[in-house]
Every structure is written in structure tokens, then in C-alpha cells.
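so ive been stuck on this for like two days lol. basically i have the seq below and the ligand is zinc ion, smiles is in there too. i just want the complex predicted, nothing fancy, no docking runs or whatever. if the output looks off dont worry ill sanity check it later, just need somthing to start from for the group meeting slides
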Amino acid sequence: MVTQTDRYDLILAGGHVVDPRNGIDGPTDIAIRDGRIAAVGETLERDRASEVRDVSKLMVTPGLIDIHTHIYHKATYYGVDPDAVAARSAVTTLVDAGSAGAGNFDGLRDFIFARSPFRLLAYLNISYPGIFAFDRDFVVGEAAIRDLLSVERCVEVAEANRALIVGVKVRMGAKTSGDIGLEALDRALTAADRLGLPVMTHIGQPPPSYAQILERLRPGDILTHCFRPQPNGPTDGKGAVLDALLNARERGVLFDIGHGMGAFGFDSAEQAIAAGFAPDIISSDVHIMSINGPAFDLLHTMSKLITCGLGVKDAIAMATDVPARALGRDDLGHLSAGAPADISLIEQVKAHFPFVDVIGVKRTGATLLRPHGMLVAGRFVPPGVRAWETGHYLQ
Ligand SMILES: [Zn+2]
């Protein structure tokens, strides 16, 4: 006899579950109760569920995590609406990468995070005002003004918001850290050391060089924009991955895609992957200048990496298991019984899709990942509008 306490709220039935952390890759049922995963098995007792949803045509993955986004919507010119981006890319967790600094994090927390049904986290910018002047036509480097790089303020605000702040962000590059250069990275590292959190560093045009940035990073720190086009790309331009990258990976530094409007090149990605240097994490760097191309969103970026030679399951691990660990969130990124029921529903379709990188180089992709909604803490969220799809490319 089935008692009330044995019942499930929902069973996702017969989907192709891809759960890298638990080594699951095949048809599996998932039962949900009270917002958590209650049971996982090849075939669960479906009459125990109040609702059974047939997902047998879909991939069922841990809730996707986009570790590099810009979602300080309307407070920053380039920020996008997290709810719209999440819905259209089946992403359950979005991490803002330094839009806010110590001077304006409270607004990100109270006006954006508190009002969203999705899980929203942040890297706090080492620069007091965050990224305050980023536009298609100009950038004022927030890391190029020494007076703004307050370690004290960064630590204070991160300490007061431990549940939401997952690390310290700094943007290194000729336009963003300017004459200050590596001192900006050193200040971010000092703050992160005091907090016991990782740094996420952007890499842009030199100076500093890829090697100069990497040699300072510690295990667990993240370099985002890892496959940017030259200059400051990941290879020597002829296909060999730079020693600096190999050494940093050996030490435990993580490499994140962070596609954005200027930081993903097919040549860089294909050369690195062909040489055995896949990224650790895939992220979109979605903002107002990349949301309508070339990055679009996380699912689009994952499809693009698959076109560069990654396996589908690897791409899913790079958007679930690995970023969850990088965030220090052991409860996320997997489908173990007891974990929050954050689950993405994805269709893998065959296509002839015209992908474009940030410098206009084109490739035709044969695989597309399409969103079919998701559960966030057990609550179903329908898929949003896929702005980049028109349908004519489907096989
Ligand atoms: Zn960014």
C-alpha cells in the first residue's frame, strides 16, 4: 500500500538522463518530492506520483549553470533580464560576473536576485562601482582606476553576503586594467585570499599576456574568455597550446569559455580542443551586446562548442558538474537523491546551423541543443523564446 509519505509530486519518466557526477547516461526515471529529488532509477513506480511527465524524447540533465552572465538589468546599460535568458536556455543558475562591485551590490541583490525564481549568484568586482561604463562604442576600464580597487570594501561586502557572492571578479586587459595592469589582479587575489574564495579573471587584449595572468592564479581560480581570438589566444597560432595553459591546468586553474561579443574564436577553440585542451567550463557571457549574437545564450554556446569537437556529454558536464564545483555548491550540478530538483529538459536535434564567432568566422553545426523547459526546486518553468532560431536549418 502506498502511504502519503511514499508519494511523489512528480516523476519525469523515461528521459535520457545525463548526470556526469553520478555516471548516469541512459533512460532513467526521476521522482521529485517537496522540491527535491526523491528517487532515481531505471523504472520507478509511476502510480506513486501525483503527476507523470513523459520526457522520453528528451535529455534530462542537472539544471544548467551559466557561470558568466551580466544580469544587473536596467541598473547597467549592458545587463539583461535574467528570467528571460534563463527560460530560453534552460538554465537554472545564473552567475553575474562582476557587474556589481562593493558600492552597488546591494541593488543587484535586492532589485534583481530577490525578485527572480531562478538561482542567481555573483562574482563581486574588485572595482568599487563594478563594470560601470561598458558600451558598444566605448569602455572605461573599471580596473584601470587605482582608487576604485578597494580590497577592504570588497571583503566587507562579500563577507556580508556569503550566500550569494561566490568569488571576486577582475577584468585584465589593455582596455580594462590599463596602466595598472597586474596590480589589479593582485588586489583581487588579496581580497579572494582573505575571503577564501576564487578569483574569476577576464583576459582581454595584451598587456598583460596570457602567461602573465595565468602564473598568478591559484588552484580553483577561473580564467574566463579562455578561447578568445588572437592576440592573447590560447595557442601559438599554429595549433600548439601555450605552455602557460598546460602548467596552469596542472595546478588546478579552471578555463571558462565566456563567449560574449569579443571572446570566442573558432580557430582558438578548434586548435585547443584538437590538441587535447578542452575547456573546463562553458558559459555565455550574455549581455546586451551578445544576447542577439554572437553568443546568444548558454545552450547556443554549448552547441557551438560541440561543433568545435566536444562530445555532447562533455559539454553537459562543463555546464553542470564542473561549474557547480567551481562555485563551491555541492548541492547543485547533479541529480542525486536529496539534491534540489533543478533539472533541465533538452532536445538534441540534427541541423545545418550557421554558427558565427566574434570575428565573423563561420562554421556549420550538425547538432543543436534546444530547451524544453526546466524544474527549479521542483517547479516547472516553460521554455522561453529562442531568439536565434528560425527553423529553416533543421534536417
Ligand atoms: Zn563578462
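The chain has two domains: 4-61+338-381, 65-326. The radius of gyration is 21 Å.
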